Amino acid sequence: MKLKFSLFALLLLSPLIQAAEQTTVNNSQAVADQLQQSQVSKTAEQGQLWGLSGEDYQRYRQLMEGPRGTQSPGLDPLTVLGIEAGATPSAKSTLNNGLNRSLPARRKS
Question: pTM for this structure?
């Protein structure tokens, strides 16, 4: 008799337990999505301070987490990206755009 009752209770409670687990998974995913969006926004803002796109600033951060950051921990984003990029036209353009935005305007005499 107890076995039948236990099986019956298990059958009734099983959907409730699954629903609760699914809600927990959905909430965890929502929190993770919000955190990721916050990090993307923060990266974009930091990149704008240097005249860089969020993608370029993210690349700088990735480079600084590797050997470049170990060898030269105090380098700014423009220098790191310039060193890493070499002499490709798009790299020069990115570097020049960033430098033009970050340097004070020069007076022409």
Answer: 0.49
| 18-39 per-residue burial string, b: 16 or more CB within 10 A, e: under 16 | eeeeeeeeeeeeeeeeeeeeee
Are residues 76 and 25 in contact, defined by beta-carbon separation less than 8 angstroms? no
Instruction: Assign 40 to helix, strand or coil.
Output: helix
- Please report, for residues 6, 13, 62, the alpha-carbon distance to residue 65 in angstroms, rounded to integers and kept in the order given: 55, 49, 5
Q: What is the pLDDT of residue 65?
A: 93
- The terminus-to-terminus CA distance of the chain in angstroms comes to 101
- Chain segment 50-100, per-residue pLDDT in tens: 888 888 988 999 999 998 889 889 999 989 888 887 755 666 666 666 666
DSSP assignment of 68-108 equals HHHH-TT--HHHHHHHHHTT-HHHHHHHHHHHHHHSPPPPP
